[in-house]
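Bench notes, bay 3.
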Amino acid sequence: MVKENDMFRCTDFLSISEILVARAVLNFFKDIQYIETGLSIYAERRIFLISSGDVDTQSLLNDIFSMLKVRNLPQDITHRDVLGSLLSLGVNRNKVGDIFFVGRDAYIIIKKELEAFLLNSFEQIGNHKITVTLDQIKNGYDLDHSYRSFELVVSSLRIDNVVSSVANLSRSKSLMLIDQGSVKLNGVTNLKKNQMIDENDVFSIKGVGKFKFTGVKGNTKKGNQILQLKEYI
């Protein structure tokens, strides 16, 4: 994974499920050091810096990451709009990390290799003209996503059951969406119909939204479970 004469290697941005696999593999090799970061401590998409010796972390971050800032976006612009505009330019999703909103300013974490292209070509989100600037790079930002918290009563933690309740669909319709790949769980679309969700799992439903399951609050008198969820906004 790390060649003998190389100082370091880095991945592209990995999804939650890919991160779990990468950790397991890298922890198996005791002589390999790695740093896992998405710049923000709350980042869900992260890269792995893999080295065979000591490296200057800050220097590496400056070489690998860029942070784009877009100011004063309209209230109706969402994470989905920003990402969709980036992808419409032909940008590879694996080169884009998390997108955070602070007020109406958007912070977009990307691989350094996209910096020049996006500074020149990323000119609008939807019909809204934008100006893109660069922000300082550092590890350990406390940027977090914006959420709407809510509770949901379900009979089980099966993904088809949760999708049905969140999207207000029949079980058969939710199963069809899963079969079509319209539901992602931790970045994975090839899901089993009886797949169970776990605490802190992130799932998205095409055309509906993206959600994070944060835990079970308790049970109803009928034995159903009360889930606590967050919807990304």
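Next record in the batch:
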Amino acid sequence: MMISWPALLVLAVLSGCNSYVRTVHLVPGAQATDVYLDNKLILKNMCYKDVGCYTKACKGCRNLKFKPIGQDSPSLLDVKIKLESDAYMTLVAMGTDLNCTEGVLYCDDRIVDSYKARIRIIHASPDSPPMDIALIPASRDAGQTETQPADSEYMPFRELCFRDASIYNEFDPGDYTLQSRSVESGEIILNIPVMTFCEGTNYTIFIIGQCEKNSLAAMSVIDAQESWE
């Protein structure tokens, strides 16, 4: 069977539309927004801490806009991104307010381990210092306090600065305490007593909020699950 040139062109275009992108709103001082991909509305009423679903898109240079609801301008964020083929990517709007916002694109790992949780950390707190971050198993947490630094064996995430993303690290499924401390001073600046992680799942933990406003927090998001395959 012969395929015409127009049909071949359509097939070629469709074969390039195998990328996926999602958006995350991590600008604490900004209002809710609508999100546009290449001027097409893909998400309505996105508020601080919201995470969008993956949207299928063609590889190459794309445009993402975060616009205040019902307004055409000014945009909270207007950024060009490059989507890779066969990739899942996350665009994070981060900063402090409308006048100090940027978009950072991260590549998400979809390869899961049936018996482990795979976890990375993204430092998205604009005024927080570089951090060392520990995940302490609940079974080993006896005697740990909010002011007692974690042992180094539980601290695979080191020297993360604003915008930095760690690699994915493997952990046994279960409950963990997250502890973050300043690289420079060693001071513990964040302690989250219970975070639960499951096998066959990849996670991103975002460090969010602002030290200055005493709003520092951690937010866990699922990147991939074995059940999605």
